[in-house]
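Hi everyone, sorry if this is the wrong subforum. Our group has a chain we'd like a structural model of before ordering constructs, and none of us has done structure prediction before. Sequence below.
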Amino acid sequence: MKHLILFRHAKAERKADSGLDFDRELTRRGREDAKLMGRVLAEAGYRPQAAVVSAAKRTRETWEHAGAAFTGVVTAYDRRLYEASPRTIMEVAETELKRAGSVIVVGHNPGLQELAAALMRQGEADPRDISRVQRSFTTAAAAAFSVAPGGALSEARLFFPADHGGKGED
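Answer:
Right subforum, don't worry. Here is the predicted structure as tokens:
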């Protein structure tokens, strides 16, 4: 069974020394939440074979810490994922899913949140989970989908840091 995991970057500093949003680094809490969520996803049985990560500093750092929970993941950094629309994120993910059995996309809101909600509605996820992801997709949150042969979504699960002893916030 293939999996698609949408993973929002962890908590980042409000402003980078450069003044550029693209250069914002993770806070200490962000690094801790990223590590935690990598472990949570691995313990839940998710094993990405490929990671596509926004080229922004905070997403690269998020994957560096979360990715330590996995082995053998082929990682690509993709500038298109920075400030990406749900459609762009899905196009990137679909391309990777053709090559790999399971893919994790590390990116940003609002695109990830909007895509997660749309995919959950398509996959007929639990209405409470759909409502939750529509309200908030905190930093270091993840939405994991099982992808059946032919591309249909057969399962959706949400993972929030606060549910596992972490912080995560909007």
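For your construct planning: The longest helix spans residues 28-43. The mean pLDDT is 94.
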